[in-house]
Amino acid sequence: MDTRRLYSFIKIIDAGSITRAADILHIAQPALSQQLSALEAQFGQQLVIRSKRGVAPTEAGRALYRHAQLILRQVDLAHAAVRVSGRAPAGSVSVGLAPYSLGAALALPLLKRVRERYPEILLHVNENFGGVISEAIMTGRMDMAFIYGAGPLRGVQFEHLRTEDLFLIGAPDGTRDPREDEVSLRELERVPLLLPSRIHTVRQVVDAAFQHASLEPDVVGEVESALTLVNAVEDGLGATVLPGSAARAILDVRSLSVRRIVDPVIQVKLSMVTSDNQPLSEPALAVHNVFLELVRAFHDCPSSDKKEQ
Q: Largest CB tally within 10 Å, which of 32, 43, 132, 151?
């Protein structure tokens, strides 16, 4: 298998045109067309549909596109492993961190510790990753992600890290200890809520709890930015619901009311997801281990909320 043909094929699909791909690759269009024809002959399948508007992958082409990305990713990892053999881990590592999560709270400590311990690792942290997580990990665009949920999800494996209670975060009213109070789900029905959109697991869990109790939440706004969300709560525009680790992080820097939701207690599971068909590279494994260290340290900290599971 000529990996150069696979690389060219990926560029053709990404560009949607043989002409544009030839410009990107700085090769003649007839030569690129010949590479594509050679791939189709090798696999005995039509890989693209040609039209005046460009090219689009067939079903066989989409399958090859996914596998080509994996193959080239493995080739890159092999080159990197050989280059740094006998030396400290080096290379790029991409980590997705779920917004409003313990992972997001540990983003800065993760950057600091990786920088201190593995200066040759270039860490890419994404707190706003979208699309299909499994596809991003399967194609190597993301090495690992820390998300709320326990699976199953096609193409990835889940490693459960911890289970967190959900808390109501609101502007302080001066009548209660913000670190000890609780609020029932039924009381929550009367509270104007600012929540993330329905694509977030936390929102889905909150909606499901209300639905199961035959209650209706008073959602007055949907906010995707964690910083904007906290600022809006501080300004009294509404309250929000966040996991315990995020609530604790907020208490460290803001004077807000944080109350554990009870009757029933609502929980979310935080998991690490990685590819189920390719191992982590040496630098990615190093980052993975650093993050687990930080999770354990956060959980074992004496100031940690002991009501969390």
A: 32
What is residue 305's predicted lDDT score, i.e. its pLDDT? 40
Q: What CA–CA distance (Å, rounded) separates 46 from 233?
A: 56
Q: 5-26: per-residue pLDDT in tens?
A: 999 999 999 999 999 999 999 9
Do 92 and 286 touch, CB atoms closer than 8 A?
no
Please answer whether residues 251 and 179 qualify as being in contact, where contact means their C-beta atoms are separated by less than 8 angstroms: yes
CA distance 151 to 157: 8
Q: Cα separations (Å) of 12 from 7, 29, 47?
A: 9, 11, 11
Residue 273's H or E segment, with its range, is strand 267-275
Q: Give the closest residue to 276 by CA, choosing from 119, 171, 157.
A: 157
Give pLDDT tens digits for 220-243.
Answer: 999 887 788 888 998 989 999 988
Helix axis angle for 107-117 and 282-300, nearest 10°, is 130
Rounded to two decimals, what is the model's pTM? Answer: 0.64
203: its two tokens: 């929102």
The percentage of residues in the chain with a pLDDT greater than 90, rounded to a whole number, is 42
Amino acid letter, residue 215: L
Measured at the CA of 77, the angle between CA 96 and CA 66, to 5 degrees, comes to 65
Among all chains, which residue has been given the structure tokens 């502007």? 171
d(CA 160, CA 281): 21
Sign of CA dihedral 158, 163, 167, 169: negative
SS3 168: strand
pLDDT at site 229: 85
Calculate ∠ Cα 269-212-97, nearest 5°.
25
| DSSP secondary structure, 84-145, as one string | TTTS---EEEEEEE-TTSHHHHTHHHHHHHHHHH-TTEEEEEESS--S-HHHHHHTTS-SEE
Find residue 156's DSSP bridge partners: 275
Q: Which position has the token pair 């609020």?
A: 183
